[in-house]
């Protein structure tokens, strides 16, 4: 069922979202300062490419307050706009019962788009 959900996700918009994440990741990695943000965007793109069957967990807090500072910068620079885009798509897809799983996936991506630092994506396909 996860494979079918991922294929439908890719065909009806997931591939477009992943490509947008990958392009923005490359643009962010042009500067040295943008590399951590580019890596976070790259992780979001990987999750947007194959979201069903994986989940997000908190990393151990060995980075100190750096994750919090990066999340605050991320929120004000672009995270809020990415989250609002996922909110709009999630609400649009949740209108029907058929689109509800994909709407819920946008809500999950929205949560990660607000604060991606200090999170890890774990695949459940074992």
Write the layout of secondary structure elements.
Layout: H1 2-28, H2 35-49, E1 54-58, H3 66-93, H4 100-114, E2 119-123
Antiparallel strand pairs: 1-2
Organism: Prevotella lacticifex
Protein name: Inner membrane component domain-containing protein
Keywords: Membrane, Transmembrane, Transmembrane helix
Main features:
4 helices; 126 residues; two-stranded antiparallel ribbon; mainly alpha; 8% strand
Summarize the structure.
Keywords: Membrane, Transmembrane, Transmembrane helix. By secondary structure, the chain is mostly helical.
Describe the protein.
There is one protein chain. The protein is mainly α and 126 residues long. The chain has one domain. The chain is 67% helix and 8% strand. It has four helices and two strands; from the N terminus they run ααβααβ. The chain has helices at residues 2-28, 35-49, 66-93, 100-114; strands at residues 54-58, 119-123. It has a two-stranded antiparallel ribbon with strand order 1-2. Helix 1 runs antiparallel to helix 2 (35-49). The radius of gyration is 15 Å and the shape is globular. The mean pLDDT is 85. It holds the Pfam family YccF. The chain crosses the membrane at residues 6-23, 30-52, 72-102. Residues 4-53, 69-119 form the Inner membrane component domain. It comes from Prevotella lacticifex.
């Amino acid at each position: 069922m996860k494979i079918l959900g991922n294929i439908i996700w890719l065909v009806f918009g997931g591939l477009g979202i992943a490509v947008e994440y990958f392009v923005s990741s490359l643009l962010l990695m042009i500067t040295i300062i943008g590399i951590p943000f580019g890596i976070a965007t790259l992780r979001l793109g990987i999750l947007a490419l194959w979201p069903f069957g994986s989940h997000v967990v908190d990393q151990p807090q060995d980075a100190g307050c750096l994750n919090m500072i990066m999340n605050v910068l991320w929120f004000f620079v672009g995270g809020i706009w990415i989250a609002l885009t996922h909110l709009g798509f999630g609400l649009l897809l949740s209108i029907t019962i058929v689109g509800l799983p994909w709407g819920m996936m946008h809500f999950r991506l929205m949560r990660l788009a607000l604060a991606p630092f200090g999170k890890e994506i774990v695949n459940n396909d074992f």
